[in-house]
Amino acid sequence: MSENSATPESGPAARPGPAAEPRPASAPGPAPGPDAADPGERPGQDDAAPASAHQQVSRPAPKPMFPDGTGPAADPAGSHHERRIRSFQPRRSRVSPGQADALRRLWPQWGLDIDGLSRIDLDQLFEGRPVVLEIGFGMGEATAQMAAADPDTGILACDVHTPGQGNLLGLAERNGLSNIRVANGDAIILLREMLAPASLAGLRVYFPDPWPKKRHHKRRLIQPEFISLVTTRLAPGALVHCATDWEPYAEQMLEVLSAEPTLANEHSGYAPRPAFRPFTKFEGQGLDKGHVVHDLLFRRLPA
After folding, report:
1. What is the DSSP letter of 156?
2. 3-class state of residue 238 by DSSP
3. Exposed, middle or buried by CB within 10 Å (0-12, 13-18, 19+), for 44?
């Protein structure tokens, strides 16, 4: 999903943006479309207009961090699937020796690349546990806490941020959390190509990138097309849980989720903060800025 997510930079480590734990780098964008990610988009640029020859820059393929295939791939889906508008930004940052060691040792057992070429057997992968998909987990601390608090539920944690993938795998090993699997790549491809209908017990999206600029709203994760896709993969009674500290995005989430006919709001409007959602550093940053955190809890209706 990310061309560069598994490639460390030689310069200073990039500050993790609001993507992943919150602001997920792995979060998918709207439903499949013709647009590609455009990190260099300029104000007022027409997304549909083809780039001129002088704008097209040929870049060498990133050097793989795991050439022996024992870790997350830099671009697992490759050219198998169409490009589209994405809600995440490819990010490069340093992978610590401990994170790299965890990835090399644990990826073959607990990691999977989202290549879109085969269906995942969740029963086999999680030994019969019900499975919740978490899109964007940052460094994985909240994910590990939820896994420890509910060992009978499997968590399929999707992201493209390589340091976070390694950190979460290390946390899982140190805390004996056998109910976590880490998925590397585009969550849209995961949902559309690799998960069976009605196979998920829930979806968690905590503090996704709000894309505050109006021209970037199309990149927000929670869109009608995305929710329509998600609901086909949710079993009856599955819980959709979103949280954000960005008020306009909270309003969009509430509107989109309320409009989906297969979902029912567990509350009248926003939900009280549920005790099972751990406090995250991104939540703290939002609160320090005076933001209000909104949770949304919607239940999948019977077919």
Report:
1. E
2. strand
3. exposed
Reading the block at residue 16, the tokens are: 């993790």
Distance of alpha carbon 294 from alpha carbon 245, whole angstroms: 6
Mean pLDDT rounded to a whole number for the chain: 81
3-class SS string, 105-134: HHHHHHEEECCCCCCCCHHHHCCCCCEEEE
Largest CA distance in the chain: 55
* DSSP per position, 165-223: HHHHHHHHHHTT-TTEEEEES-HHHIIIIIS-TT-EEEEEEES-----SGGGGGG-S--
Is pTM beyond 0.90? Reply is no
pLDDT in tens, 85-119: 565 555 556 899 999 999 999 999 999 999 999 99
Strand partners, 204: 134, 241
Contact between 295 and 241 under an 8 Å Cβ cutoff? The reply is yes
One-letter amino acid for residue 108 of the chain: P
On whether the CB atoms of residues 215 and 43 are closer than 8 A, the answer is: yes
User: Is 158 buried (19+), middle (13-18) or exposed (0-12) by CB count in 10 A?
Assistant: buried
Please give the positions annotated as active site.
209
Q: Given strand 200-206, what is the order of strands in its sheet?
A: 111-113, 180-184, 154-159, 131-135, 200-206, 234-244, 294-300, 263-265
Round to whole Å and give the CA distance between 63 and 118: 26
DSSP letter for each residue of 51-99: PPGGG----PPPPPS-TTSSS--SSTTTTSS-----SS--------HHH
Q: Distance between CA atoms of 266 and 258, rounded to whole angstroms?
A: 11
